[in-house]
Design brief:
Length: 381
């Protein structure tokens, strides 16, 4: 068994080395050409280097937003003998980054198996478990109680279950990105660099394709829909998180327990955020199926789709719970919603959610690096 594990690690390291070497190869070619220098942050960052070590490759791969503009503009793209495909090379390294820096490291391989089937299987298993619990308690169908879901599952039970899993997910992701941050040696964070990185992350600047016209999806036509659907998804998620945070303050600081009125701040934030999480993921899932296979790594599509689908199901079940919260079906909707939320929390450290964390770190390094004097003196930076 020990020998088998050793062979698996060696095979994994070989795959990682090949992915890193491919990025280094295409960056060498791009560095000689520089036609795409104005497309996104990757190419100006590339010009500050002559050689590309592992840390540089991990940094550049996570700085890439996979807009596809460079692939369609490249004169050395397939079927040219150089076969330069920056989005594909970067996507493969991004996944290896998540695997290499995952904590615990043994769970890093879940990034390769985090597909729709796994996501739905875990969700359905948790939903069935909660429904069986309700049956045993005799609360599968309840008399309308004004939406008081604490009468179904106590507040302390929900806090213990979801709080512990959520904190573990944040802790695991935090350790991973700290290790990534140390590897790429970012330098000193200034207020200007932090402000620029925050702006670039919140506006999804580099999903504009470098010229503001958007990404390439199924062909070489530019479209802003990928950026728009990302905005719906991101800000929908943040509004839902804000709803939960405000409800927590209501409960622990103001002494106001759920359920809250439809015109209360937690419900308004959650409803608007939920609508955003219906529109955004639905659009992203459609674009994911329509996208040219040359854009990114096709092997990662199951992980991408699992993440998108889980977000959509969380939103749909949450809005369903709101609509049926004062009916006898409330407990069933609650079990369904909690099952999807728990599945999302469990897979969060080892799924597509990580890309936003690592990409934000790369944007911050880019903002810091731009303000440092170039040692090579080879670019306008």
């Amino acid at each position: 068994m020990q020998q088998l594990n050793s062979l698996i690690r060696e095979a994994s390291n070989l795959g990682n080395a090949r992915a890193d070497q491919e990025v280094a190869r295409v960056m060498q070619i791009c560095n000689a050409c520089r036609y795409c220098e104005g497309f996104c942050a990757v190419f100006p960052a590339m010009t500050r280097r002559i050689e590309f070590n592992t840390a540089d490759v991990h940094y550049l791969a996570n700085l890439c937003h996979n807009c596809g503009a460079c692939l369609h503009a490249c004169q050395y793209a397939p079927p040219h003998d150089f076969a330069v495909n920056v989005p594909l090379a970067m996507a493969k390294v991004r996944q290896e980054t998540y695997i290499d820096f995952a904590w615990p490291h043994a769970l890093g391989s879940l990034y390769k198996r985090n597909g729709v089937t796994v996501a739905l299987a875990s969700s359905i298993s948790l939903i069935v478990f909660l429904l069986v619990t309700l049956v045993l308690k005799g609360t599968l169908f309840v008399v309308p109680n004004g939406g008081n879901f604490y009468a179904i599952f106590s507040h302390n039970t929900l806090v213990l279950m979801f709080g512990s899993v959520f904190l573990f997910a944040i802790f695991a992701l935090g350790l991973g990105v700290i290790r990534f941050w140390r590897q790429i040696s970012p330098g000193t964070i200034s207020s200007a660099a932090a402000a620029e990185a925050t702006h670039d992350a919140l506006t999804l600047k580099y999903l504009g394709g470098g010229h503001g016209k958007g990404c390439n999806n199924e062909d070489d036509a530019f479209s802003l829909w990928r950026k728009r659907f990302h905005h719906f998804t991101f800000y929908g998620f943040m509004l839902c998180f804000a709803s939960t945070s405000v409800a927590t303050l209501y409960h622990y600081v103001l002494g106001l327990s759920a359920p809250y009125a439809l015109n209360s701040l937690p419900v308004i934030l959650g409803t608007v955020g939920g609508i955003g999480l219906l529109i955004g993921p639905a659009g992203l899932l459609y674009l994911n199926y329509k996208r040219d296979s040359a854009h990114g790594d096709a092997n990662q599509k199951p992980m991408d789709r699992a993440f998108i689908l889980l977000l959509w199901l969380i939103s749909a079940s949450g809005l369903g719970l709101l609509a049926y919260r004062d009916t006898s079906w409330m407990s069933i909707w609650l079990a369904v919603h909690l099952g999807f939320v728990m599945s999302f929390f469990l897979t969060m450290p080892y799924g597509k959610f990580a890309h936003g964390i690592y990409r934000t770190a790369a944007l911050l390094k880019n903002a810091i690096e731009k303000r440092q004097k170039s040692k090579l003196q080879l670019s306008s930076d």
